Amino acid sequence: MTETVKDAEATPDVEQPYRELGLKDDEYARIRDILGRRPTSSELAMYSVMWSEHCSYKSSKVHLRQFGEKQPPTDALLVGIGENAGVVDIGQGWAVTFKIESHNHPSYVEPYQGAATGVGGIVRDIMSMGARPVAVMDPLRFGPADAADTRRVLPGVVAGIGGYGNCLGLPNIGGEVVFDPSYAGNPLVNALCVGAVRHEDIKLAHASGAGNLVVLFGASTGGDGIGGVSVLASETFDEHGPAKRPSVQVGDPFMEKVLIECCLELFAADLVVGIQDLGGAGLSCATSELASSGDGGMRVWLDRVPLRDATLRPEEILMSESQERMCAVVTPDRLDAFLDICARWDVQATVIGEVDDSRRLTVEWQGTVIVDVPPRTVAHEGPVYERPLARPTWQDALQADDPSSLPRPTTGEELRATLLDLVGSPNLADKSWVTDQYDRYVLGNTVLAQPDDAGVVRVDEATHLGVALATDGNGRFTKLDPYAGAQLALSEAYRNVAVTGARPLAVTDCLNFGSPEDPAVMWQFAEAARGLADACLALGVPVTGGNVSFYNQTGDVAINPTPVVGVLGVLDDVRRRIPMGFSAEGEVVLLLGATREELGGSEWAHHMHGHLGGRPPAVDLAAERELATLMAALPGVVTAAHDVSDGGLAMTLVEMALRRGIGAAVALPDDAFVALFSESAARAVVSVPSDLVADVERLASSYAVPLTTLGTTGGSTLAVDGLFEIPLDELRSAWQGTLPALFG
Amino acid sequence: MRVGVVTFPGSLDDVDARRAVAVAGGEPMRLWHADEDLRYVDAVVLPGGFSYGDYLRAGAIARFAPVMSSVVQAARGGTPVLGICNGFQVLCESHLLPGALIRNDHRKFVCRDQELVIENSTTAWTGGYAAGQHLVVPLKNGEGGYVADDVTLDRLEGEGRVVARYVGQNPNGSYRSIAGVSNERGNVVGLMPHPEHAVEELTGPTTDGLAFFTSVLRATVDA
Is the pLDDT of residue A234 over 60? Predict the structure, then answer.
């Protein structure tokens, strides 16, 4: 029997399995307090998923507030934190919406479907703002490249991202692939989507206007992704029901592609008052969030939801995370037009409820009321925790373990060997094995994609307006110093956008950490959030939204704290973008920015010595800002630009040379090792036709950016004066061989 | 000159094909899978993508779409038809072209800038190229391995119906490195790589693909 509100009132003392559903004693008591009675089984299911860490941000909320409190003054932000995704004004009446999310745990359990549905979920978030998705990116982190489990997880994740994203027709324009032992058993699969929308077409997840109808459209609801609710269904209600449901969702990208086109037609015909995607927590989330953000209440007839599996119980229908579903609020006079467009795309659409002025969310099942709650208490007023924090006891020792005592290459021959070794190391090697499985061309607007510093897509064909996007994160830097590490992640993404000639505008972040119940992890999180918020303020780029992923740990061992930061920039004319590769012989190669001896957490220390200790490179946000301002003045002057980061100047030069097979000859200052492999921030390399060098020097000096002349492009080698010369073919084979050898 | 581009549910590169037609100077027309009306177009492009999710087999369901009965009839009457990637699969499933496309031999989706050589420059879609001309255009497919029996392959080669071949590494295990074939009359061409993604310097690796679209405009004028 399905439990009704009347049943719950009549039997106040029934034992409920709230602990199995992840609710604490005091959380359960609070639900009883809110309702003035015990919850029904359906209500308990709803609260348990909506008050989960994933949905409620209960451990992170107090720290995330800083992103609003320290928001830099900006008029670019049209929609801020709290909606499905932030929306940024890029001019000419265009806006873009972008967001990054994690799908870490599902991708470890079932790499293909976990990663695929991660793409699907973030794409629906973007659609629910009224935007057309225009590109995706995937920052990925795995355990050691040669570990057996990495060979299980990585190919599945990559195939899943490709299999889903390629079938949606969204170009994949960048991301990262990073290997580190700390991610063994805890791969990080983050997914970013960006969409474009005219200002007047922005949609919000609000259910307004009593009498308006709630329409569920897209795929039928099945038993996938139910997770903890199966506890409730099987232990309390139906001993003979289905066993534990698979808790990883299964994606159907074709359905999603059709849903995208259907939604865009609905938006174009102005048939939607409010819209919400169904992702985590399924209908529980969609209905409570729509109702909570609206001006009234909502009544839902749950037995009208089309099912893939007729045996599903109401609790399961409320919790199901079946993919490719959307929920819209539609005025009654537009319903027929709405349903006609859905029919044209063969998309199933069903009226499952209506907006009313009750200020309650009620759910009915076969004529009885099974949920009757104030929607805000489900969606927006969940528990908030001030978790204890403690600087780890090992932090001082870690920072004291400086890399200065590690043996360094000194002779030309040693430096040459070190460079070749690093070029082929898994973190620095060519990532084509991964990115060649993604379609970067579809939609025909991709101007730059990996391996360029940022992905660049054209938004308006008539005016050439476009956006640049980059994601970065460095778990090693963040472990050494969480405050600085988060700032360095932002600095790098900001710089990667700037070196394409784009103006950085806004930020999205995916904060991947261990267990918030560990005070050391919570300290890392708090420091990283504080660092990121401070740096966003200093760089003038607001956080528009994002995601927190906790519990990335095996036993007591947490991953390296890994804030992944996405920066969005605007290019008024994408034809003026600056690519990363040397494009002509005989041009002058310049280093912008200052190099210090900074090897803590570097790729050199990591790969050559397996060492992690000391301090990360110094953060210099003023220098980042100056460099970005300078770069914005350089389109049309420099022919290539590439940021200096992982692997230092050496890697930057190798990548610039290999891009189009044009070498370079450079001379370095006294300590060639530091010059080549230090990872000092706020640096970039540019190539310039010789007659324009004076222009760059003048501009650099006016923006106070240090400038060093390194040498000249040309030839088929990378030559470092007096030290070594490596043919590009040799570099290329070292660079390209690693991933195919590992993954086939 | 009106060139129709069919949109099936799951078509992805239809926008790009329409853009390529426009860049070439033609008038792109949208054709809908559920509509038999070809809107008096002079040529038809079946674009890339995953029509009907590629369920059952790539192109197998699209073949039965109402628009395809008109396309097949028009093709038999001499109307130029180009099937790109998924469109090539649909043309094979419709028996307008011989052979079939199967999963890449390395079992992975592949997206790369691919070198091709044009072998037949007399079809409706390749008249703007010289035989032996090399191009670089994007290739992106999961099921791009062209297969046919030896008799068919010998006949295709003997009759000059291999329109393009891969140069260098065979990206998908296609027999005899075949990237595209035509029907006997030369008005129907199937091609696995994507010329519509190589029509603008800004977004393509080259503009080598544009001549497919300018060729057909000239062919339809001449006809």
Answer: no
Whether ipTM exceeds 0.85: yes
* Residues listed for chain B: 223
Distances (CA, A) of A230 to A32, A370, A490, B70: 22, 18, 40, 51
B85 is catalytic: yes
Contacts of A159 in chain B (CB under 8 A): 108-109
In which residue are the tokens 């409706």 written? B124
Q: CB of A254 within 8 A of CB of B55?
A: yes
Distance CA B33, CA B80 (A): 18
Q: Residue B175: give its domain's CATH number.
A: 3.40.50.880
Helix axes A728-743, A412-423, angle to 10 degrees: 40
Closest CA to A699 of A646, A627, A642, A594: A627
For every residue of A405-449, DSSP letters joined together read: GS----SHHHHHHHHHHHHTSTTTS--HHHHTTS--STTS-EEE-
pLDDT tens figures, B81-100: 999 999 999 999 999 999 99
Tokens read off for A1: 């029997």
* Residue A416: both structure tokens together: 């040459």
DSSP string, A522-568: HHHHHHHHHHHHHHHHHHT--EEEEEEE---EETTEEPPPEEEEEEE
Q: Are strands B81-84 and B188-191 parallel, antiparallel or unpaired?
A: parallel
Scanning every residue of chain A, which has its alpha carbon at the shortest distance from the alpha carbon of B203? Answer: A447
Edge-first strand listing for the sheet containing A588-592 = A640-643, A684-688, A588-592, A707-713, A664-666, A717-720, A724-727
Residue A369 has pLDDT above 50, yes or no: yes
What single string gives the DSSP state of each residue in A602-631?
A: -HHHHHHH----S-PPPP-HHHHHHHHHHH
Q: Which of A325, A335, A208 is nearest to A274 (CA)?
A: A208
Using CB atoms, which residue from B15, B19, B140 is nearest to A439?
B140
Would you call A162 an interface residue with chain B, using a CB distance cutoff of 8 Å? yes
Q: What does the alpha-carbon distance between residue B204 and residue B198 come to, in Å, rounded to a whole number?
A: 4
Chain B CB within 8 Å of residue A135 CB: no
Beta strand pairing call for B2-7 and B43-46 = parallel
Is position B111 annotated as part of the catalytic site?
Answer: no
Cβ neighbours for A741, distance < 8 A, ≥ 6 positions apart: none
Contact A440/B109, CB-based, under 8 Å? no
Q: Catalytic one among B93, B115, B119, B196? A: B196
Rounded Cα gap, residues A213 and A336, in angstroms: 12
- H/E element, A251: none
Contact criterion met (CB below 8 Å) for A617 and A478: no
Whether B196 is a known active-site residue: answer yes
| Residue B75 belongs to domain spanning | 2-222
The residues of A assigned a catalytic role are: 54, 103
Neighboring chain A residues of B111 at a CB cutoff of 8 Å: 166, 435-441
B200 in contact with A, Cβ within 8 Å: yes
Answer yes or no: is pLDDT of B119 > 90: yes
Q: Is B18 on the interface with A (CB under 8 A)?
A: no
Number of domains observed in the structure of chain B: 1
DSSP A394: T
Residue with tokens 């405009």: B217
Average pLDDT over residues A607-619: 98
| Interface probe, candidates A119, A441, A574, chain B, greatest B C-beta count within 10 A | A441
Residues in chain A: 744
Average model confidence (pLDDT) across chain A: 94
Question: Which pLDDT does position A98 carry in this prediction?
Answer: 96
Q: Identify the helix (H) or strand (E) that includes residue B27.
A: strand B27-32
